[in-house]
Amino acid sequence: MAVKPVPESELHNRMRVDNPWWGPRREIDYDRFGRLPKREYFDLFFPFVQEKEPNRALILMGPRRVGKTVILHQSIQKLIDQGVAPRQICYLDLQTPLYNHIPLDRLTRIAREASQCPDGEEMFVFFDEVQYLPQWEMHLKNLVDVAPSNKYIASGSAAAALRLKSTESGAGRFTDFLLPPVTFFEYLQLIGADKIITARIKEGGYRVQWSGIEKLNQHFFNYLNVGGYPEAIFSDTIQSDMGRYIRSDIVDKVLMKDLPSLFYGIQDVQELNALFTMLAYNTSNEVSLDALSQSAGIAKNTIKRYVEYLESAFLIKVIHRVDRSAKRFKRANFFKVYLTNPCIRSALFAPIGQDDEAGHLVETAVFSQWFHSIHTPLYYAR
Asked: Cα–Cα distance between 251 and 64 in angstroms, integer?
């Protein structure tokens, strides 16, 4: 008996489920996305969604669980609120098994049919988790070239795949936008405590004032322990077991499921995991390849490859040292490694309190406020 291929009508039905604004409601799933507050980065991101010149696809990058899917849906709702016809907006989650191995141009054509958007009419096409499509970067580059009237926005959590592919194959066709973990100021906003800090211009600069230093410190230590991920901020259940949330939803998926072997030739995932745990414990400390090699029992060249992957996956950030004249050393024997989110360390080991030794985590938290500034490299000096 012959096996029947999945008809396009089933793809239409799936797309209509994921794009409820094509129906009479004309809005996103309000319970899942509409009630969530917008991050401060939304106002920076949305202009790139609207941007028509230059003709480029927009790539939303960032660590897992920082709100990329939410910001995509909030962008869709704002487009609708601004008068864009709902039929001109398409959201495709490429994790959906039904879309496996279907090229992006065919998915876009099927979506146009499902939404009844006439040929030639502009569309905003959102590809979520785009790295699940093999050679997605070539497909997306081709779409930008052959259908420039559409605007393509792609996101993904397998940051190593995204970063590697977008830099090599999308030159001149992609605009990268980095969405970092929640900053401390955003954390205060999300919990309704931002009035504790005020900033006003005085004598040509900003003067920052705060009320209640004890309360501010309490919020800061809560931020160190749970504040980097929007979902954790609003969930008592997640906060009660941050270790499980961080390990299962973030670290394990990056180290074991985001294709480290495919993109970086990494075969021993347990060895990679052990090195990451060591680096997490030593966040903000100065380290060297020699010291890491001796402690972990791993060859230096292998450690270099592991560190490169962990940095590409947005779990850590490497900072290099400069000399007294602010010049980089020719041989980077020593460097600092920071977790991109301080609450990863607290989740992997134990929550930290105000009476604990916290200097390394405080420094990590201060550094993480600059994590979004990918075009402003930071260095350290002794």
From this structure: 9
How many C-beta neighbours within 10 Å does residue 360 have?
18
Which residues of the chain have a pLDDT value below 70?
A: 1-2, 30-31, 34, 158-171, 199-206, 257-264, 374-375
Q: What pLDDT sits at residue 268? A: 83
Tell me, what's the pLDDT at 28? 74
β partners of residue 93:
128
| Token reading at 94 | 């490429």
pLDDT reported for residue 123: 96
Q: What would the 3-class secondary structure string for the chain be?
A: CCCCCCCHHHHHHHHHHHCHHHCCCCCCCHHHHHCCCCCCCHHHHHHHHHCCCCCCEEEEECCCCCCHHHHHHHHHHHHHHCCCCHHHEEEEECCCHHHCCCCHHHHHHHHHHHHCCCCCCCCEEEEECHHHCCCHHHHHHHHHHHCCCCEEEEECCCHHHHHHHHHHHCCCCEEEEECCCCCHHHHHHHCCCHHHEEEEEECCEEEEEECCHHHHHHHHHHHHHHCCCHHHHCCHHHHHCHHHHHHHHHHHHHHHHCCHHHHHCCCCHHHHHHHHHHHHHCCCCEEEHHHHHHHHCCCHHHHHHHHHHHHHCCCEEEEEEECCCCCECCCCCEEEEEECCCHHHHHHCCCCCCCCCCHHHHHHHHHHCCCCCCCCCCEECC
Residue type, 331: R
- Picking from 122, 143, 350, 323, the residue whose alpha carbon sits closest to that of residue 243 is 350
Those residues whose C-beta lies under 8 Å from the C-beta of residue 26, and which sit 6 or more positions away, are 80, 86
Report the pLDDT value the prediction gives residue 100, as an integer from 0 to 100.
86
Q: For residue 369, how many other CB atoms are within 10 A of its CB? A: 14
- Residue 224 structure tokens: 């160190």
- Whether pTM exceeds 0.85: yes
Burial of 27 (0-12, 13-18, 19+ CB in 10 A): middle
The pLDDT, as a whole number, for residue 50 is 95
- In this structure, are residues 298 and 275 in contact, taking their beta carbons and an 8 Å threshold? yes
pLDDT confidence of residue 172: 74
